[in-house]
Amino acid sequence: MNVKITGNASAAEAAKYVEYLEEKHGRKLDSLNINLDGDHADLSYTFAPVDFERIRRITGYLVGTMDNWNDAKSAEEAARVKHSIGCPDMVANL
User: Fold this and answer.
1) Could you give the CA distance from residue 16 to residue 26 in angstroms, rounded to a whole number?
2) Disulfide check for 4: which of 27, 31, 63, 81 has CB 3.0–4.6 Å away?
3) What is the pTM of this model?
4) Which residues, at least 6 apart from 59, have a Cβ–Cβ distance to it below 8 Å?
5) What is the pLDDT of residues 11-37, one digit of tens each?
6) Phi then psi for 9, rounded to 5 degrees?
């Protein structure tokens, strides 16, 4: 467990809170602060960063990268007309 734990809970209690929160949210915790006051538990926590992959629409397909494309699909992507925003010629003609 690589969670930074602070507060006044025992190690066993803190481990249970970590297990509960990670299962509930489906993410790994980065830090957890536990303040126990009788039957009340005040939890403050942050999640570890989640890596994500950029998704774009290329030639009608939603893709992250073109690493697994075959030669034909790569050639199709290379031959497509690429449009840009802010073309000086377009602004002059308005």
Assistant:
1) 15
2) 31
3) 0.57
4) 73, 76, 77, 80
5) 999 999 999 999 999 999 999 999 999
6) -95, 150
